[in-house]
């Protein structure tokens, strides 16, 4: 690095924030960087090890106050690079990008606006022939029977989700077998959570393995891409055995043709959205791809412009530290491009995540050594 920069990360102390900073600090030439952190949760923020931490309003609940506080922090700390870590913060700050007085490394707002809503993103994928589950936007509960007749029936199930951005962890998602079950689920969420009927989508059920892909673009060029498989949800359940969830408790590196196909489809999805928006991909894109009944990785959603809570899996597997490349590209500092864009780890590693212990990376031979007693 040519300079000592001041970098501001949001959601510090929260899920994925601490590990992202740890992996930024592993990058070459950053020893004298100053790191600023913020969060709207005092307890999470209290465990941040950034050099300076600020308590800020919620970007989702108090957008104007959040933007004002963020700009003041950037001015006070003379921040060089601002890295928002949540969908709500990206949406809140993007209209003020030209006024905040520092760098960001974000996709064009037209792309963000076109893809944060899962149904809008689906329509782009369908129009570009990118594999995705057949999906219908629910407008009236009385039409659920008609929706189900249109969708492919897979394992006697259909998939319900909330389409709007701003929440994580498969919020509002479940599988159902009938219009009656769908109606009961939606009515419960409308009554208890204050969502609208029109916030829901219903899709073809995807029965297969679940892959998480992360892609890094710089001015329209794909620079680095990684993938892992979600083996078991943190909330319990197997993605390939009717489980419902999002973030993994157990993940696994994946290689071979299926890994390449998942990344191919993820890249097609990103570039289709950019073409639709008449923009060039830029920054980070995290996409989920689940195998359909024909074992084709089908893209279900994109977290655009931000790293996921599992970013450490991407940073700590494969040949390249994803966080290091993100930082160099964001600051327009020179770093040799990766030898291969698809950084696929063929080491057959399992990644175990838990609340009370650091992330563990386990090789297959560790599992093979475990003894089983007959009883």
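Sequence proposed for the structure above (375 residues):
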């Amino acid at each position: 690095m040519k300079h000592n920069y001041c970098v501001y990360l949001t959601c510090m102390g929260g899920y994925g924030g601490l590990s992202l900073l740890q992996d930024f600090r592993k990058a070459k030439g950053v020893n004298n960087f100053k790191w600023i952190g913020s969060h709207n949760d005092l307890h999470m923020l209290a465990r941040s090890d950034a050099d300076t931490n600020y308590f800020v309003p919620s970007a989702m609940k108090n957008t104007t106050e959040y933007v004002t506080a963020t700009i003041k922090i950037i001015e006070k700390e003379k921040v060089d690079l601002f890295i928002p870590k949540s969908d709500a913060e990206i949406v809140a700050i993007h209209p003020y990008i030209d006024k905040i007085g520092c760098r960001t490394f974000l996709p064009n707002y037209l792309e963000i606006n076109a893809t944060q809503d899962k149904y809008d993103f689906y329509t782009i994928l369908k129009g570009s022939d990118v594999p995705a589950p057949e999906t219908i936007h629910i407008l009236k509960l009385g039409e659920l029977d008609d929706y189900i007749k249109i969708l492919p029936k897979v394992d006697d199930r259909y998939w319900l989700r909330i389409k709007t951005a701003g929440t994580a962890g498969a919020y509002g998602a479940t599988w159902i077998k009938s219009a009656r079950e769908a109606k009961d689920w939606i009515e419960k969420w409308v009554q208890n959570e204050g969502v609208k009927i029109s916030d829901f989508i219903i899709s073809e059920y995807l029965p297969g393995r679940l892959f998480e892909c992360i892609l890094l673009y710089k001015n329209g060029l794909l620079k680095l891409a990684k993938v892992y498989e979600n083996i078991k949800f943190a909330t319990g359940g197997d993605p390939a055995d009717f489980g419902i969830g999002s973030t993994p408790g157990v993940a696994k590196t994946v290689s071979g043709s299926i890994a390449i196909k998942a990344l191919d489809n993820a890249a097609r999805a990103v570039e289709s959205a950019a073409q639709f928006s008449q923009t060039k991909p830029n920054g980070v894109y995290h996409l989920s791809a689940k195998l359909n009944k024909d074992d084709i990785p089908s893209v279900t959603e994109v977290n655009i412009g931000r790293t996921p809570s599992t970013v450490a899996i991407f940073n700590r597997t494969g040949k390249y530290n994803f966080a290091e490349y993100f930082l160099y590209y964001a600051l327009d500092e020179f770093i040799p491009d990766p030898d291969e864009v698809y950084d696929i780890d063929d080491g057959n590693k399992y990644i175990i995540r838990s609340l009370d212990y650091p992330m563990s990376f386990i090789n297959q031979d560790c599992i093979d050594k475990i003894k089983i007693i007959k009883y």
